[in-house]
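Thread: Modeling a multi-component assembly for a lab meeting

Hi all, long-time lurker, first post. My supervisor asked me to bring a structural picture of a complex we are working on to next week's group meeting, and I have zero experience with this. I have the sequence lines for every component (337 residues in total). Could someone generate the structure of the whole assembly? Inputs are pasted exactly as I received them:
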Amino acid sequence: MSDLKVLVLIPAKNESAKITEVVHGVRQYGFDVLVVDDGSTDETGKLASSAGAVVLCHALNRGQGASIKTGIEYAIKNNYSVVVFFDADGQMLAKEISFLAEPVLKGEYEVVLGSRNLGHTINMPYSKKIVKKMALWFTKITTGLKITDTHNGFQAWSLQALKKIDLSQDRMAYASEILAEIKNKKIKYRELPVTISYTDYSVSKGQSIFNAFNILWDLVFKK
Amino acid sequence: MLIQFILIIAILFIIIRSWYRKQKKEISSGEFFVWLAIWVVAIIVIAWPDITSLIASAVGVKRGVDLVVYVSIIFIFYLLFRLLMRIEKIEKDITHLTRAIALKQTDKNNHDQQ
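Re: Modeling a multi-component assembly
Sure thing. I ran the full set together rather than chain by chain. Output:
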């Protein structure tokens, strides 16, 4: 690729069962890994550090959006060129990181969004399919972005683009906010296919359907 | 009436509690006097309910009790709004603080390693 520095940012809360495997998986491709331990009550931070990640610890759980923003500030302070958002529950493939980061490293796009609908999903629960469809419809209406997937945490961002956006949502609503910011700040983006593999573990760690209402509430009442 | 007596005693109790909180500097003098004014109005309305009827007819509401309900609902919603805003600000402050501590800790670790 190039000499530009890539940081893989992994927000994690109580992921001690998977975090070592996930960090090792990313490290084997030579990327720097930052794990933001979001108030875990287990050994997530310690295990991530042992596996070779830099670990930032939130003393209190502040949510995925807050963790992403903490990671962005770290990336800015340490002059990374590209930041890739990655999940801690093992449902994303580390081998696809380069594929997502490459157009950003080449300067062709400021952001590359992973898309499950262009790529494919393995064992996605039917309930999640319905919620994702509704979320996609909501995103299209509220942002006008022509995208095929929404709330997909697998994304590659140039540092310059990250400096342009202003994230105020601490919890999961940040995923909608980030798309709105792409639209508002006219950030050049594209989607690329990625694979998301749902396991019993990742589904149990994932959000419940009812969290969609919390996200809506946050989007309407919080800024 | 007994209900008037009970309500006024309850309000006097709240005023005394507020006074103690002001003395302990848990609330400011300004905040105390705003609440005092509200509770004094409540006592007047409870002690002389006919006053509300006079005001109600002056502003075009049929019954005094209806006017009290309308004003109370607006006041409660305003209070709820203020509380939500305050909680939201505290949440943001906690996040900023948590983030600053996390980043500072990493700086310290890096410095120690060097």
